[in-house]
Specification:
This protein has 90 residues and is α+β, with helices and mostly antiparallel strands. The protein has three helices and four strands; from the N terminus they run αββααββ. It has a single domain, classed as 2-Layer Sandwich (Phosphorylase Kinase, domain 1), CATH 3.30.200. The chain starts with a helix and ends with a strand.
Length: 90
């Protein structure tokens, strides 16, 4: 959670962003926790970022994202009306 929220604040609320909006929701759904992040930053897909991590020379780069990807049951991403929405089920 810390890695996600830090990145959303750092990149999703940049002064140059078209929409300076951030919405974070965490919901218990049975035994799962569902995290929904929405922001107005540049398009950003965790899955695409993870694919690029395999090419990264620094083995510690993106550790928080790697941990999240390993813990997640599912990750869905879409972009509409200039907003990123990422839904993570853990």
């Amino acid at each position: 959670m810390e890695e996600l929220t830090t990145n959303v604040f750092r990149h999703g609320l940049r002064p140059g962003s078209a929409l300076r909006t951030l919405d974070l929701r965490v919901v218990a759904d049975g035994e799962d926790v569902v995290i929904r992040l929405r922001d107005g930053g540049a398009a950003f897909s965790l899955k695409r970022f993870a694919d690029r991590l395999s090419e990264e020379k620094d083995p510690n780069a993106g550790n928080g994202i790697r941990i999240l990807l390993n813990a997640a049951k599912s990750i869905n991403y879409y972009r509409t009306y200039g907003m990123n929405t990422t839904i993570i089920r853990v």
